[in-house]
């Protein structure tokens, strides 16, 4: 197979359906000398945290190669590019804009505009300035206000150049992985820390939405959430309850406050010390309206009842990607349909979907049929959800190019473009060529 196909009447073949590629600042930019330190710099410098001992100092050197990379994006024929802004690049320690950093992004936004590529800007993709972490980071309520302040200044600086803003990328990862189990920066642990940081992230989202509505009402403003749907290991009532608990804890915890202004019921089951400090008015702020919901999907999880911990996640069955994540596209359709049943959803964009695969490059060619298969199955899954009535308006491949895959370092490759980290040469993979074809065939 060398192509990606959709049924001829698919809404995903309308020109109005947006196709894009996605990246994030820390994962591709490098250019560390031109910004403040962030929590991922500190985390990378801590022995044993990153699988290959690497860091983000150079990454894909996008900081210097950004123009070539935009030409590459243009060559793929996509409608949109989802990028994130490095907060420590555009702000100084005393809360003013850093004009050099702002100019870096203005150049990118201007070049995208010239090429008619819509800019989907994520305002926070995990690179919190270290000096804010030193004051408690997302455990400190004040960080939510610092975020709103940064959003206020940066959106004024970008006026008229952005198509869509997302406040946060995957607050689940920031709070749970970063503050609850500590496998992401800043590497702290504790249920209380995880739940408290999640609340402050959601508050930051709500405060930033107010700023976006004021400063840039003409853009599509929303948030990006990730979902790993939970399935019971067996049909037993106990396993079903375990899976439901995990779903509330990992998935609904983030979407429900935003769309329904409340946390899932299981909040009542948490020890009082683990419950977030919810101040009066917080849920109203968090639950302000959004123009779109970004959904990131990669895999599902299977749960069994567990006497001690309520649920236990079972090892992922095959087939699996190079991350060890099960390939189970049916869960994608079921997720989208179930969210649509549960909530009054705004228009949905698939803001990330893709797979890490053990790529090899031979004579300048990457035959990633495994990744191509993943894309085909997951595009079908999105199509099926649209057929079942979910209003999905766009799809972004994660990722434009191989990059720094957080705690996994550079060993896991998610790109539809291959990056040789010795030479920084980019090579479009077979999946990238197929994606381009799909888009141009519309
Ligand atoms: C998501 C992140 C993204 C990337 C993919 C594989 O959780 O948003 O930065 O690492 O996973």
Characterise the protein shown here.
By secondary structure, the chain is an alpha/beta fold. It has an 8-stranded parallel beta barrel with strand order 1-2-3-4-5-7-10-11, surrounded by 5 helices. β12 and β13 form a beta hairpin. The two termini are 19 Å apart. The structure holds beta-D-fucopyranose (FCB).
The number of distinct structural domains comes to 1
CATH topology: TIM Barrel
Query: What kind of oligomer do you see?
Result: single chain
Which class best fits the helix and strand makeup? alpha/beta
E-strand count: 13
Major sheet attributes: 8 strands, parallel, barrel
Judging by the overall fold, what is the CATH architecture? Alpha-Beta Barrel
The whole-angstrom Rg is: 21 Å
* CATH H-level homologous superfamily name: Glycosidases
Features:
globular, alpha/beta, 39% helix, 442 residues, three-stranded mixed beta sheet, TIM Barrel, eight-stranded parallel β-barrel, binds beta-D-fucopyranose
SSE layout:
Blueprint: E1 18-22, H1 25-28, H2 39-44, H3 62-75, E2 80-84, H4 87-90, H5 99-114, E3 118-122, H6 130-133, H7 142-157, E4 164-169, H8 171-180, H9 191-215, E5 220-227, E6 230-232, H10 237-260, H11 282-286, E7 292-297, E8 301-306, E9 310-313, H12 330-342, E10 348-352, H13 369-387, E11 392-398, E12 417-420, E13 425-428, H14 430-440
Parallel strand pairs: 1-2, 1-11, 2-3, 3-4, 4-5, 5-7, 6-8, 7-10, 10-11
Antiparallel strand pairs: 8-9, 12-13
Helix pairs in contact: 3-5, 7-9, 8-9, 12-13, 13-14
Bound molecules: beta-D-fucopyranose.
Residues 24, 27, 169-170, 173, 226, 296, 352, 398, 405-406, 414 line the site of beta-D-fucopyranose.
